[in-house]
Amino acid sequence: MSHVQFGWTLPSSPPKGMSGNAYIESVQKGFELIKGHFDSFWFVDHLQSDEKALLEGWTALTYFAGLHPEFMFGHVVLCQSFRNPALVAKMAATAQFLSGGRFVLGIGAGWKEDEYRAYGYDFPPAGTRVEELVEALQIIQAMWRDERATVNGKHYQVIDAWCEPKPEPVPPIMVGAFQPRMLRVTARYADWWNVSWT
Question: What is the CATH number for 145?
Fold first, then answer.
């Protein structure tokens, strides 16, 4: 029988006027509270939110992963549009290597139009973003699996892409989804499912 595991989503928005050191101290107190009770911690991947301070997700997540080797860690969830999928595969493989196998790749199609526009990203229709996510997942899995990965997608391509060291073990992939098409993508490509707003 499997047991229930709990994860903590770290606060991503330091209050106005809070220093970096004070924010870290506050989060560290949270870690002390969850030790022995929670198995993982998570960070969001947004670039802006209602004109309040917001930390970049990959940088913040890996900072705390280095401080807390007792936890698994990942994002809830990465926006596939913000980073080239080959780079994501390499970053994830590196995180897995340096952490001793504690990383979970959380990823989704992306949805928050205002941050896309503000940061200069195209915001294609939802169906296109889902297509992009599928191709991103195909590239990531190929780079983790194949000696040299070649994927010729409509939106993303890699040619003889080399990803060493290979992640060991291969990180679980968690897809954020709640619409029917995205649930099918989750069923096909993911090991875990992240559902929000339930």
Answer: 3.20.20.30
